[in-house]
Amino acid sequence: MRIDVLNGVNLDLLGKRDPGTYGDSSLQDLETQVYAWARELDLQVRCRQTNHEGEYVEFIHHALGAADGLILNPGAWTHYSWAIRDALEPFANPFVEVHLSNVDEREEWRRFSVLEGLGGMRVVGKGFDGYREALALLGGQRA
Length: 143
Ligand code: DQA
What we know:
The chain is α/β, with parallel strands linked by helices and 143 residues long. It has a domain at 2-100: Rossmann fold, CATH 3.40.50.9100. It contains 5 helices and 5 strands; from the N terminus they run βααβαβαββα. The chain has helices at residues 19-22, 27-40, 53-63, 82-88, 129-140, and strands at 2-7, 44-49, 69-73, 95-99, 121-124. A 5-stranded parallel sheet has the order 2-1-3-4-5, sandwiched between helices. It is globular. The relative contact order is 0.21. The model has no long low-confidence stretch (mean pLDDT 97). Residues 10, 73, 75-76, 78, 99-101, 103, 110 line the site of 1,3,4-trihydroxy-5-OXO-cyclohexanecarboxylic acid. Pathway: Metabolic intermediate biosynthesis; chorismate biosynthesis; chorismate from D-erythrose 4-phosphate and phosphoenolpyruvate: step 3/7. Substrate binds at residues 73, 79, 86, 100-101, 110. It is an enzyme of class 4 (lyase). The record marks 17 as: Transition state stabilizer.
C-alpha cells in the first residue's frame, strides 16, 4: 500500500516555531519517524513538504490514481485554501487530515478546515504520534 505524506506551509520550521505548541523536533525528525513507522506497518511511504500552495496542489494531483492513501497536514492552508480542497475532491482513496496541535482548541479561525465534508479521517493534537495513528488508520483500510 502506497501512502504519500504531504506537509504544507511552515512545517519545515518545526523545531524553530513555537516549541510549546509544535515541539522541538524538526521536520527531518518527523519524516524519519514516519518512515520507521511505515516499515513497522508494512506500508510504502513517501514524505513531501512545500511552502508553495501550487506545488502542494500538484503533489495531490500526482497522488491521484497513484497513491492508495494520503496523509495531509496543509498547515495554515487548511483554513482557507479552496484550491487544495478542489485538488483533493477527485481523490477516491482514503485520506487522513493530521494536525500536530489541537486546532479545535486554539484560535477560532483554526477550527474550520477546507477538507471538511470530503469524507476523510482526522487526527488532531497528538503531535508526531498523530502521523503514526494516521498510518495505522490507512493500513487498517488495506484491501
Ligand atoms: C497545523 C495547525 C495550523 O493551524 C497551523 O497553521 C500550522 C500547523 C498543525 O499541525 O497543528 O501550520 O496544521
